[in-house]
Automatic annotation (TrEMBL):
<dbReference type="GO" id="GO:0008239">
    <property type="term" value="F:dipeptidyl-peptidase activity"/>
</dbReference>
<keyword id="KW-0732">Signal</keyword>
<keyword id="KW-0645">Protease</keyword>
<protein>
    <recommendedName>
        <fullName>Serine protease EDA2</fullName>
    </recommendedName>
</protein>
<keyword id="KW-0325">Glycoprotein</keyword>
<dbReference type="GO" id="GO:0005773">
    <property type="term" value="C:vacuole"/>
</dbReference>
<dbReference type="InterPro" id="IPR008758">
    <property type="entry name" value="Peptidase_S28"/>
</dbReference>
<comment type="similarity">
    <text>Belongs to the peptidase S28 family.</text>
</comment>
<dbReference type="Pfam" id="PF05577">
    <property type="entry name" value="Peptidase_S28"/>
</dbReference>
<dbReference type="GO" id="GO:0070008">
    <property type="term" value="F:serine-type exopeptidase activity"/>
</dbReference>
<dbReference type="GO" id="GO:0006508">
    <property type="term" value="P:proteolysis"/>
</dbReference>
<feature type="signal peptide">
    <location>
        <begin position="1"/>
        <end position="22"/>
    </location>
</feature>
<dbReference type="InterPro" id="IPR029058">
    <property type="entry name" value="AB_hydrolase_fold"/>
</dbReference>
<keyword id="KW-0378">Hydrolase</keyword>
């Protein structure tokens, strides 16, 4: 074990495979960042052991151009299941300007350069969990506050903190406020997957709904034809999609299903559906049309690395780059599942993508006994019955992940839906519903930006209120 290792730079490695969010983060160009200047601090490896005092180096970023010295708020933008390469110029930067806030981001343990180990064996992954990650955030928050106080030559002063996150990091944002309410005035939990789901059939169902009748029928035809061809001439049909290397049929079928998902999750339904429906209406091959979408958009423009769907690749414990798929699968296979399985009826994906496929993957990739204890996770956090306060939840209407999020408002925890043809995952924090890669400031070609603006107004009101209440009670000033 090597605790202070610095891994090579992880550039443009795309997390694939049912992963909630990170590939989009990777697509951002350098100019999409407010800062990429790295800082480091020593983090505790195991927050739950009284005996183990090992530490590892954890990477973070700060951006204080908008900070109202000395009492402005501090916005903690939580990084999730990907390398965290800087602070992105997304909607949180607009909020930081508005509130005179400093922005800070901590890389999630194990991802990017914040890995405690060089080798990602199952044994070494034992400290990779959301519970450890939340504790990391709490320790970091204290560390940063103390450093700031030192810089400002003062002690025992607390700025007002607010946490933000999208997707899995959105869940961490909600859970941080739940578990450490004294450390943040509130939380924005965008497309936050707070509910661990074992048998996640609603995910596939949402794809059908987001697609609409014609596209849904075309996609189901693709699935049926591919299933048939797989039985007769597997090699040929895999080759058609550039997936000749795949040994496990389930991996190939999951890859095909996920390719369609991304169109809806990230607001580009027409890129997928228009050519597919055209092909069907004109008597052309829908399978060819789909293969073209997969190769040109999903693998091409979107930039997904096909091998990360291959269990052979996921088993590799010595991955200096592209290890995010293995890391995220470990979290899936131990804590949260979100198994995107075919529903028994009217499925979009092949019925071979079932619970068995996922459980076999967990076992094959990580070993005997690796199994997602979703009940434990939901007991620990409450799932959609989360007993938090001052958390804003937001969901995109077309996003399959919203069925693992909190979709109803409750006292002190408002929930908003952003509804439009293109509204997908984390839409509220990015510039443009159908171009999640366009960050802030370019909404010229956006469809339905009003749907986003409306929810942002609400978000601002909540942040404003909760920051002022934090100040008024004096709770956060020691
Ligand atoms: C972190 O730990 C290393 C190794 O013990 C030490 O050399 C370094 O000074 C520490 N860094 C900070 C910021 O405390
Ligand atoms: C820091 O504060 C102390 C106590 O108020 C003061 O004596 C000292 O001069 C200050 N130092 C600096 C560098 O401002
Ligand atoms: C998974 O959910 C579907 C419907 O939502 C249900 O029909 C099926 O029995 C469930 N499977 C298991 C193993 O619970
Ligand atoms: C299966 O799906 C079809 C089409 O949506 C629907 O008409 C039928 O009622 C469903 N059957 C069951 C058992 O849910
Ligand atoms: C489809 C769905 O469940 N949408 C929900 C999203 O959140 C809003 C606000 O709580 C609900 O009103 C919607 O029903």
């Amino acid at each position: 074990m090597k605790l202070y290792s610095v891994l090579p730079l992880l550039l443009l490695q795309l997390l694939t495979h049912g992963a909630v969010e990170s590939r989009v983060l990777h697509m951002a160009s350098d100019s999409a960042y407010l800062t990429k200047e790295e800082h480091w601090f020593n983090q505790t490896l195991d927050h739950f052991s009284p005996l183990d005092h090992r530490q590892f180096r954890q990477r973070y970023y700060e951006f204080s151009d908008n900070f109202q010295v000395p009492d402005g708020p501090i916005f903690l933008k939580i990084c999730g299941e990907a390398s965290c390469d800087g602070i992105q110029n997304d909607y949180t930067s607009v909020l930081a300007k508005k509130f005179g806030a400093a922005l800070v981001s901590l890389e999630h343990r194990y991802y990017g350069k914040s890995s405690p180990f060089n080798s990602l064996t199952t044994e070494n992954l034992r400290y990779l969990s959301s519970k450890q990650a939340l504790f990391d955030l709490a320790v970091f928050r204290q560390y940063y506050q103390e450093s700031l106080n030192m810089k400002l030559n003062r002690s025992n002063v607390e700025n007002r903190w607010f946490v933000f996150g999208v997707s899995y990091a959105g869940a961490l944002s909600a859970w941080f406020r739940l578990k450490f309410p004294h450390l943040t005035c509130g939380s924005l939990a965008s497309s936050a997957v707070v509910h661990a789901v074992y048998n996640f059939t609603d995910f596939d169902k949402q794809i059908g709904e987001s697609a609409g009748a014609d596209c849904k029928a075309a996609l189901q035809e693709v699935t049926k034809l591919v299933d048939e061809k797989l039985a007769s001439d597997g090699k040929a049909v895999k080759a058609l999609f550039g997936a000749a290397k795949f040994k496990i049929d389930g991996d190939f079928l999951f890859f095909l299903a996920d390719a369609a998902v991304m169109a809806f999750q990230y607001g580009n339904p027409d890129v997928l559906c228009s050519p597919l429906v055209d092909a069907k209406n004109n008597g052309l091959s829908v399978v060819d049309a789909y293969a073209n979408y997969v190769k040109s958009f999903f693998l091409g423009k979107f930039g997904v690395d096909i091998q990360t769907y291959d269990q052979q690749y996921l088993k590799n414990t010595d991955l200096p780059e592209g290890n995010e798929a293995r890391l995220w699968w470990f979290q899936v296979c131990t804590e949260v599942a979100y198994f995107q399985v075919a529903p028994p009826n009217d499925s979009m994906r092949s019925s071979m993508v079932d619970l068995r496929y996922h459980l076999d993957l967990c076992k094959n990739v990580f070993g005997e006994g690796i199994y997602p204890d979703v009940d434990m996770t939901n007991i620990y956090y409450g799932g959609t019955d989360i007993a938090g306060s001052k958390i804003v939840f937001s969901n995109g209407s077309q996003d399959p992940w919203r069925h693992a999020s909190k979709q109803t408002s409750s006292p002190n925890m408002p929930s908003y839906i952003i509804s439009c043809h293109n509204c997908g995952h984390g839409t509220d924090l990015r510039g443009c519903p159908q171009s999640p890669l366009n960050l802030e400031g370019d909404d010229k070609h956006c469809g339905s930006p009003e749907a986003v603006y409306k929810v942002r107004e609400q978000i601002i009101d909540h942040i404003d209120l909760w920051l002022s209440e934090c100040q008024a009670t004096g709770r956060s000033y020691l």
